[in-house]
Amino acid sequence: MKRSLEATYRERHRLALREEVPLLRKEALRIDERRSCMMKYWVMAATSNPEFVMARSVVCTTSALLCLIALITLPIAYVFVWKRHEGPSVYKASVEWILYTQTVGVAVATIAPVSRWFVVVSFKYSNMNRLRDEMKMEKYWVQTLVDLRESFSGLQIGQVKCLHDLKWFVITFCIGIQILIVLLSKLFVFLSALLMTPCFYFCEQLYSIESDNDKGLNLSRYVLLLQGEAELPRTAVKNICSEADRIIQTGKGKQPKSLINLVSKSVDLKGLGLFDSNQVPSLHSQEPPNCWSLPVVTLTSIALAIPHAAEKKKEGLLNSVREGLSLAKLVEKTLVKDERRVINIREATDMCWVGVVLYMKWLDIDLKRMSLDCRNSKEMLRELSEKAERIVAEYLERPFVEDPLDWPARVIAANSMYRISRSVVLCVDDDDDDEGVLEKLCVMIADIMAACFTNLPNVITVMCQGSAIEKREKSVEKAFVLLGKTEEIVEAVQRLEWPPMDHEKAAEIEEWQAWFRQTEKVVENLVSVSVSTTDETQHLVIQVDTPFIL
Question: pTM for this structure?
Answer without folding.
Answer: 0.81
